[in-house]
Design a protein that fits this description.
The chain is of the alpha+beta class. The protein has a 7-stranded mixed β-sheet with strand order 1-2-3-4-5-7-6, sandwiched between helices. It has a 4-stranded mixed β-sheet with strand order 8-11-13-12.
């Protein structure tokens, strides 16, 4: 098997490969491609463009730039410095090999060298694979739900639905992130959370066509731990029934906005793949004191 090296990208030729990689990851909208000249500017101006290379072929990349946290807008920009992680993509031929995790690990190492404590990014909250990597493996947390962040998106992956997003906070020097990155904390599964009294806010059922459909009942969050179920493969739902995908978007938007408003924070993600029908759950915690510690 070809050895894959993860490192910062340099030079115009490698940035042009990053353009081509974007076309493979997010096909269908040439105007959404971040051009090589802009990637070069980001990389030479305090931002990061990191690639995963199989021999000389770019098969994954992550890019981001310096920004400011809007938590305390009255503070000077220097005191609010953060890294805005804008894109992460892995070529379809190389998915399932843990490259997203390795790219984020390399990004974290570079940010620690820069003296940055916080990185943020957005992702579709209905994408189970992304949620698992971001919350469960990387230790990021989320308390911010944003409606239609990018307007009507034109690429094939995102076209047809409101571009709602989670914005996650990744406190890269925290004990929480250290333990997740290094795997020093035993992972918790659904049984662990249920035994701790976690409340299921919603549930999914299977339709005749085998697609997960949202249940009619939604509970108000009450305890310290709550669970929110989402489809295990939202892209499959979207391909088969765009109307059903929109139902999931509308339902979960309401649940997450209400929970975040009530003070809950998304702190973990559970993916049960060993069953005949996989299940996916967010874990939301109330009053979690480990977000940046």
């Amino acid at each position: 098997m070809t050895k894959i090296i993860v490192r910062p990208l340099i030079g115009a030729a490698e940035m042009e490969q990053a353009e081509d990689l974007q076309r493979a990851v997010w096909p269908g909208s040439e105007t959404d491609i971040v051009p090589a000249h802009l990637l070069l500017t980001v990389a030479s101006s305090g931002g990061l463009v990191i690639g995963a290379l199989a021999d000389d072929r770019l098969v994954g990349y992550v890019m981001g730039f310096l920004g400011t946290d809007d938590e305390s807008p009255d503070r000077v920009a220097m005191a609010r410095l953060k890294h805005c992680s804008h894109q992460l993509g892995v070529h379809p031929d190389y998915r399932g090999r843990g490259l997203s995790f390795e790219l984020k690990r390399a990004q974290r190492d570079e940010l620690i060298r820069q003296g940055i404590r916080l990185a943020t990014w957005t992702f579709d909250p209905l994408m189970s694979v992304n949620a698992y990597v971001n919350l469960h493996r990387l230790g990021a947390v989320c308390r911010t739900y944003k409606r239609e962040v990018y307007g009507d998106m034109r690429d094939e992956l995102n076209r047809g639905l409101p571009s709602d997003r989670f914005q996650v906070d990744w406190w890269i020097t925290s004990n929480r992130v250290d333990s997740r990155i290094e795997g020093s904390r035993p992972p918790l599964d659904l049984a662990n959370y249920l035994s701790a009294g976690a409340q299921k806010l919603n549930s999914a059922g299977l339709s005749d066509d085998g697609l997960p459909r949202p249940g009619a009942e939604v509970e108000e969050p009450k305890g310290n731990l709550v669970l929110v179920e989402i489809p295990p493969d939202f892209l499959e739902v979207k391909r088969a029934d765009i109307g059903l995908a929109d139902e999931w978007r509308t339902l979960t938007r309401s649940i997450f906005e209400g929970a975040f408003e009530a003070g809950y924070v998304a702190t973990d993600f559970i993916y049960l793949k060993g069953e005949k029908y996989p299940r996916s759950y967010y874990v939301l915690s109330s009053g979690d004191s480990t977000l940046s510690g």
